[in-house]
Structures are given as C-alpha cells and as structure tokens.
C-alpha cells in the first residue's frame, strides 16, 4: 500500500496523484491507440459508440452526478447537436466550424432549459426534462424545411481539413477518442476549479451552498449549459457515425440509456461514465453471442452430465427457442437495472474500489466502510 | 325572408361549432379521466412513501392482461373476472414492493425511480413474451352502445371510465382523510421514523399502499380495454401522459391527479381538433412546462420550505 504525504493543496488537486497513475493511464492510452490494428471492424465500430456514449455520460455526470440535477432529456441535446451538424453540412460549412457551432447552440439551449429548471427539484425536474425532450422530438419531426421531418437526414462523410474521414476508418475512431479524452481532462479541470466545487456544494446541500455565498442559480444554469454543450459535441460525432438521423432515434428510451450508463458505471466518478458506456454498448454483442453459442454450450454441459443424445438435442432446441424470444433484451435490461440499484448502488466503479480496498487492507477489510446511510426522517418534499 | 334564411344558417353553423366543441370537451374529459385514473396510482404511492413509481403504467398494462386471461381465456363472467384481476394484481403489487422497493426505502428518490424504470422494462418484455405482441380485446358490458343527449353522442365505454374515476377518486379521498389507515399512510410519508415510533407498522402500510395502487391501475387497465385495447406498450404510452397529469395536479394530491388528468385530456383533444397536426402530442407538455414555471409544485401541491 502506498502512502501519499501531502504538504500542499496543490498535492491534493493534482490530476495524477502519483507516478502509478501516469504509468497505468499511459498504458491504457497506448492500448486504445493500438486497438484498430488488433480488433475486428465490428468491435471497432462498437468502440466508437463507447467513446460517444462515454462523452455523453461525462456530460450527464457533470449535471446529475456532481450538481445533483436529474435529467431525462439528454437525448434531445444529442439530437440538437446531430441536426445542427447535418444542417450546416448541407451548406458546405467545414467540420471544425459546425462542430463548435453545434456545441455552442446546444449549450445555449441547455442554458435556456436551465433557467426554468431553477425552481424545480426532484421529480418535477425529471418530468420537466422529459417534457422538453418530447417537445424537441416533435419539433424535429414537424420542422420539415430544416430537419426533413420523419424522413430523416443523410449525413455526408466527415471531411477534416480536406481529408475524407469515413465513419468506419481508424481516423474517425481516433477523433472520437480524442474528443472523449479532452472532455474528461476538461471536466477534471472543471471539477477542481471553484466552479466544480460550487457544483458539488449545490448537490450536497443547496441551502448550505447558498449560505456559503454560492450563487446557486448561476451555477445551476452553468452546469446545464456545460452538460448540454458536451452532449451536443457528442451528437455531431453520433450523426457522422450513423450517417443517417431521424427523430425516432432520439426518444426517451435513449435518455434512459444515458442515465443507465452513469448509474451502472457509478455516479460519483468520471470512471463511471466510461465503464457504464462500455457495459451498455457491449451488452448487444454479448447477447448476440449468448443467442448463437449458448444453446450449444448448455447442450454440451447436459451431455457431459449424462444426458442422452436426444435429450441433449432437446435441451439445445429449448434453450435456442428461449434465447430468440422477442423482448428478451428488454427483460435482461430491466433485471440489470434493478440488480444494480438494489445490490451495487455505487456502480461498476464502486465495485472496483471495494475490491481494491479489500486487497489493500487484506485481513482487515470491513463491509461497513461502504455502507450507505438510510435516511427515514428527511422528507425530500421540504428540501 | 332571405335575411332570415342566412341568419338561421349562421345560427346553424354556430350550433354545429358549439356541438363540436361540447363533443370534443366530453371526449377530452373521458380521455383525461383515463390519465387521471393512472395518475391516481402515482399519487397514492407518492403520498404514502414519497416514492415515484415509474412502472405504474406497466402495472396497468399487466392488470389488463390479467383481466384478459380471466375473462377472455378462462371464460369468467366480466365482473367476476374484473374482481379476480384486481385481487391478483393487488398481490402482485405487494410482491413488487417487497422485492424491488423495500430494500431501497430510505435511499435517495432517484434510486427508486431507476429501480421502477427497470421494473417497467422487465414487465413489458415479460408480458410481450407471455401474451404476444398483438392487440387484445375484452368483451365488456360497455363495449357497445351510445347514450344520446339531443344531438350529443356519448359512448358507454367512455362514460364508464368517467364514472369509475369519480367513484374511485371519492373513495380514495375519504380513505386518506377519514380512516385510521389513511392517516397512518400520510404520517409515514412525512416521517417514516417518527411514524414507526408512534406504533405505525410502516412496512405493512407501504405494502398495503402498493397493493391499492396496483388495484387502481388494474381498474384503469380493464376499463380502458375496450377503448385502447391491450398490448404490452400501452402502459408506457399512457403512463407518459398520466405522469404530467399527476405533476400538473401537484404530486401529492388525489383530487389534483384527477383535475390534472382531465386538464391534460381536454387540452389534448382540443389541440387535436382546433390546432394543426402535431400539436396534439406536445400541447399537454407545453402547458405542463408553463404551469411548472409559474407554480413549481403543481396546481394543488403543498408548498413547503425547509426551515434552517
């Protein structure tokens, strides 16, 4: 176990607290840079989606995880970013310009949503953001001169400084990775600045933050705007990756998926956004794998445990029939969400911290270290 | 003479417009009662436990499927099947509370929202697997026939929804405000610990309230069966409309839920009739946002500030 001797506030807010961090993150970056040479094109494509989802996850963490403002409307911000890109692209605006324009426009709209959200808390804020997302979805479907309505819009191949970057090329992956890494570094810097400290103070207690002189309204709007802007940037990449966008891609379902990303990953650390994104995106290939290979494996297991040939074939067909049932994915999704909320509220990253601490303190680990306090007294109505 | 004809025609047109308006109003109220009925379930659970149940619409869907199983497949009498479905769903509500909600009572509100969203996903898929994805229909005594008042035409199925909403709302209002159990529920919503010290069996109270809200959801599902049919996504679609209804009325108020539901229903049906296409689906949300801007705790919500 390593003990850090801190002598200065600077030691406390360092991005890399000790050399181990530099080594491990350096290795991670090296692996990610080498990934296009090792992985199949399908997995590369999923990896691009991981980057995009993780970027949105980071954005959502700023708002929900660190400022404590729940939002079920982030699909709308993603849609605004994606449509801005598609629309400006029609007029031959270069990529860097419409990339930034999408971020600025989405940020401005995020601030506009933030103002009415100032007076709302808890469940009212959730329903207000849902309403906002539904209204945006309807506008996208109806404003045909700009968005082409329900027929959707084609997004042309991205062209970066005159070089075409097809959506399944390694360069596009590097671009998404770069956006993700810059977002994460930017957010880390934000969180150790006074603004980030104010966000966390608002999350922990609005009343206390206000009495300490934090301008609650200003910082809430800031948080909304920053979160929306990052989501808008991710939306541009999302549009290019899909190469076709239509309003029914940006439904409440997608907003819920983003919330699941941070919930499963862990809402208290940026690691959570990335881990959650990996989980959500990789669950699809995993389920396909289960569907294709699981019946054979189970039949093999049954055969080794002494089932006859007919019985094994019977088991195989039954498992195959079960695995190809309609809606199995939804059920598995539901069960995963419930299991995480019930048994691992800290998410995958929380589980990792627990395992790490277990080995660090080996014989002395106590489960109570991570026990959350249940509060039966405080009524959220009178906050 | 000529003038008189024109005048009578004008009058006639005015009459027709008036009739259209009344017709839209009534169908809006009927639709709104449906939302109100689902919203009642939201409000019940919220009132007793300060928990928002995002799976309420899916409980309604499941209730509809249970009723279909009892009435359509087992061939029970309508009222008998109705009662059986309500009883079965009340038990199911208790089960859901025991498994999903009780372990996380006392944690932040958002945990419970996520858990019930997960429950909703799960119920939708399971219902799709068991009952298939087709639209199902239940034969009810209200399926056919209309009531004519002058030139106004009202379908019995819609009238039955309005009547049931009024009756259920009144019953629940009396239950919460006059009975001991209702008072115990309100007490445990405000402060579970204090309620427990006062000898209220909080766990059982929470369990009962989930049973009641699942039963109310089933009533909504069965009454809706002739109007919207039953399919596995009906809960999601209607739940998303009932939720603004509950918020509009102020989340903790039983009459508020019904008033909110009727408002949403009337706005939706008026917007569908008088405004261009596309407004119908967003008008309720625009009104909701406007109301939340002016009154952040809904029309009938309690405004409580924390004392520091």
What does this structure look like?
The complex is a heterodimer of chains A (383) and B (308). Chain A is an all-alpha fold and 383 residues long. Chain A folds into 2 domains: 247 residues, ABC transporter involved in vitamin B12 uptake, BtuC, CATH 1.10.3470; 98 residues, no CATH class. Chain A is built from 16 helices and 4 strands. In chain A, a hairpin with a 2-residue loop joins strand 2 and strand 3. The two termini of chain A are 41 Å apart. Chain B is mainly alpha-helical and 308 residues long. Chain B has one domain. Chain B has a two-stranded antiparallel ribbon. In chain B, a hairpin with a 2-residue loop joins strand 1 and strand 2. Chain B is globular and about 70 Å long. At the A-B interface, helix 6, helix 12 and helix 15 of A face helix 4, helix 7, helix 9 and helix 11 of B.
Order of helices and strands of chain A: HHHHHHHEEEHHHHEHHHHH
Biggest sheet details of chain A: 2 strands, antiparallel
Spatial sequence of strands, sheet with the most strands of chain A: 1-4
Mean of residue pLDDT of chain B? Answer: 81
Whole-number tally of structural domains of chain B: 1
Shape of chain A: globular
* Pattern of helices and strands of chain B: HHHHEEHHHHHHH
- Would you tell me the structural class of the helices and strands of chain B? mainly alpha
What is the element layout, followed by pairings?
The complex is a heterodimer of chains A (383) and B (308).
Chain A: H1 9-12, H2 19-38, H3 41-66, H4 74-90, H5 95-117, H6 122-142, H7 144-147, E1 153-154, E2 158-160, E3 163-165, H8 170-191, H9 194-204, H10 206-211, H11 216-242, E4 244-245, H12 252-265, H13 270-304, H14 309-323, H15 328-343, H16 347-360
Antiparallel strand pairs in A: 1-4, 2-3
Chain B: H1 2-49, H2 56-73, H3 78-101, H4 109-131, E1 146-149, E2 152-155, H5 156-178, H6 180-190, H7 192-197, H8 202-228, H9 234-249, H10 254-274, H11 279-294
Antiparallel strand pairs in B: 1-2
Helix pairs in contact in B: 1-5, 1-6, 1-8, 1-9, 1-10, 2-3, 2-4, 2-8, 2-9, 3-8, 5-6, 5-8, 6-8, 9-10, 9-11, 10-11
């Amino acid at each position: 176990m390593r003990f850090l001797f801190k002598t200065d506030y600077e030691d406390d807010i360092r991005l890399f607290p000790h050399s181990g961090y530099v080594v491990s993150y350096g290795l991670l970056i090296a692996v990610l840079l080498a990934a296009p040479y090792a992985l199949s094109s399908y997995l590369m494509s999923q990896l691009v989606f991981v980057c995009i989802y993780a970027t949105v996850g980071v954005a959502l963490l700023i708002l929900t995880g660190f400022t404590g403002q729940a939002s079920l409307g982030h699909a709308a911000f993603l849609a605004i970013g994606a449509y801005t890109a598609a629309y400006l692209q029609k007029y031959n605006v270069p990529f860097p310009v419409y990339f930034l324009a999408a971020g600025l426009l989405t940020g401005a709209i995020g601030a506009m949503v933030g103002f009415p959200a100032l007076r709302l808390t808890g469940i009212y804020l959730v329903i207000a953001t849902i309403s906002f997302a539904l209204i945006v979805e309807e506008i996208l479907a109806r404003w045909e001169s700009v968005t082409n309505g329900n027929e959707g819009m084609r997004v042309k191949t991205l062209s970066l400084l005159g070089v075409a970057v097809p959506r399944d090329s390694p360069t596009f992956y590097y671009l998404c990775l770069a956006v993700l890494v810059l977002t994460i570094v930017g957010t880390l810097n934000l969180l150790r600045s006074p603004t980030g400290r104010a966000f966390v103070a608002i999350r922990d207690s609005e009343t206390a933050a206000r009495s300490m002189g934090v301008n609650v309204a200003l910082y809430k709007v800031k948080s909304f705007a920053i979160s929306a802007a990052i989501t808008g940037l991710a939306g541009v990449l999302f549009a290019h990756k899909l190469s076709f966008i239509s309003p029914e891609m940006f439904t409440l379902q997608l907003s819920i998926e983003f919330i699941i990303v941070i919930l499963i990953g862990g809402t208290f650390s940026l690691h959570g956004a990335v881990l959650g994104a990996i989980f959500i995106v990789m669950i699809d290939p995993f389920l396909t794998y289960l569907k294709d290979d699981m019946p054979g494996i189970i039949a093999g297991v049954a055969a080794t445990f002494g089932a006859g040939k007919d019985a094994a074939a019977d088991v195989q067909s039954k498992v195959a029939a079960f695995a190809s049932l309609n809606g199995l994915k939804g059920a598995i999704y539901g069960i995963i969400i419930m299991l995480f909320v019930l048994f691992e509220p800290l998410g995958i990253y929380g589980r990792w911290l627990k395992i790490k601490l277990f080995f660090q303190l080996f014989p002395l680990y106590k489960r109570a270290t991570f026990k959350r306090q249940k509060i039966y007294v405080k009524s959220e109505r009178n906050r | 003479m000529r003038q008189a004809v024109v005048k009578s025609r004008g009058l006639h047109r005015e009459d027709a417009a008036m009739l259209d308006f009344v017709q839209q109003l009534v169908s809006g109220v009927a639709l709104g009662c449906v939302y109100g009925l689902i919203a009642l379930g939201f409000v019940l659970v919220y009132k007793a436990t300060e928990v928002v149940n995002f799976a309420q619409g899916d409980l309604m869907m499941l209730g509809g499927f249970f009723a279909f199983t009892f009435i359509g497949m087992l061939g029970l009498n309508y009222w008998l099947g109705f009662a059986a479905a309500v009883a079965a769903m009340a038990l199911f509500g208790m089960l859901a509370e025991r498994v999903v909600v009780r372990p996380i009572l006392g944690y932040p509100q958002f945990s419970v929202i996520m858990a019930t969203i997960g429950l909703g996903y799960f119920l939708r898929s399971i219902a799709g697997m068991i009952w298939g994805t087709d639209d199902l229909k239940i034969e009810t005594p209200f399926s056919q026939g209309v009531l004519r008042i002058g030139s106004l035409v009202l379908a019995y199925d819609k009238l039955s929804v309005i009547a049931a909403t009024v009756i259920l709302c009144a019953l629940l209002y009396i239950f919460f405000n006059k009975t001991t159990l209702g008072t115990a529920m309100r007490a445990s919503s405000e402060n579970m610990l204090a309620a427990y010290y006062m000898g209220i069996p909080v766990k059982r109270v929470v369990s009962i309230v989930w049973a009641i809200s699942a039963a109310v959801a089933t009533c909504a599902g069965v009454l809706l069966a002739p109007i919207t049919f039953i399919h596995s996504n009906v809960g999601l679609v209607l739940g998303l409309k009932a939720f603004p209804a509950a918020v509009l009325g102020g989340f903790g108020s039983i009459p508020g839920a019904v008033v909110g539901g009727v408002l949403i229903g009337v706005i939706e049906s008026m917007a569908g009739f008088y405004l261009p296409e596309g407004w119908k689906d967003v008008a309720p949300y625009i009104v909701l946002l406007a109301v939340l801007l002016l009154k952040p705790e809904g029309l009938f919500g309690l405004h409580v500030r924390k004392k520091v």
